[in-house]
């Protein structure tokens, strides 16, 4: 069954996969990032990424906050389309507040996804409408 990206049902389904999540890259493991996803079907959603995992709500003390359009967030986080992220950033669709070096470190340290990460990405795609 597929769920709308960032809906409560989607979060519950993703939480059910936590035990299967592969080890994040070192850059992702150390990153805490607040993200406001704007213009989604359920309105704006506040989430954060910590240790390579999505969580609901923003966290105090995160060094960086992104504001990202819904379609770009879906392309980045569900489809793994980093080109969409770069294009959106260069065109000003992604707004960054705080420590930009954290994003640069994430991009530089990302590398190609492992087979385990690709398999997990496919599971996320399958449960996302």
Task: Give a description of the structure.
The model has no long low-confidence stretch (mean pLDDT 89). This protein has a single domain (8-100, 113-122), classed as Nonspecific Lipid-transfer Protein, Chain A. The protein is globular. A hairpin with a 2-residue loop joins strand 2 (43-50) and strand 3. Helix content is 41%, strand content 24%. With 129 residues, the chain is an alpha+beta fold. It has a five-stranded mixed β-sheet with strand order 3-2-1-4-5. The longest helix is centred in the last third of the chain and has 13 residues, at 115-127. The chain is built from six helices and five strands, in the order H-H-E-E-E-E-H-H-E-H-H.
- Average of the residue pLDDT scores: 89
Output the CATH class name.
Alpha Beta
Query: What is the annotated CATH architecture?
Result: 2-Layer Sandwich
Number of structural domains: 1
Largest beta sheet, briefly?
A: 5 strands, mixed
Low-confidence segments: none
- Look at the structure and name the CATH superfamily: SCP2 sterol-binding domain
Number of helices: 6
What portion of residues belong to β-strands? 15-25%
Large-scale geometry:
globular
Content-based structural category: alpha+beta
Q: What is the straight-line distance between the termini?
A: 9 Å
Main sheet: strand order: 3-2-1-4-5
Q: Could you state the order of secondary-structure elements as H and E?
A: HHEEEEHHEHH
CATH topology category name? Nonspecific Lipid-transfer Protein, Chain A
- Over all CA atoms, what is the radius of gyration? 14 Å
């Amino acid at each position: 069954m597929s769920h709308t990206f960032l809906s409560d049902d989607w979060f519950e389904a993703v939480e059910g996969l936590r035990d299967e999540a592969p080890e994040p890259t070192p850059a992702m493991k150390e990153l805490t990032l607040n993200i406001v996803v704007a213009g989604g079907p359920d309105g704006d959603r506040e989430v954060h990424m910590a240790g390579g995992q999505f969580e609901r709500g923003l966290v105090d003390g995160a060094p960086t906050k992104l504001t990202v359009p819904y379609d770009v967030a879906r392309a980045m986080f569900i489809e793994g389309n980093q080109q969409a992220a770069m294009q959106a950033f260069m065109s000003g669709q992604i707004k960054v507040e705080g420590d930009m070096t954290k994003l640069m470190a994430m991009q530089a340290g990302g590398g190609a996804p492992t087979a385990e990460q690709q398999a997990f990405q496919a599971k996320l795609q399958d449960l996302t409408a």
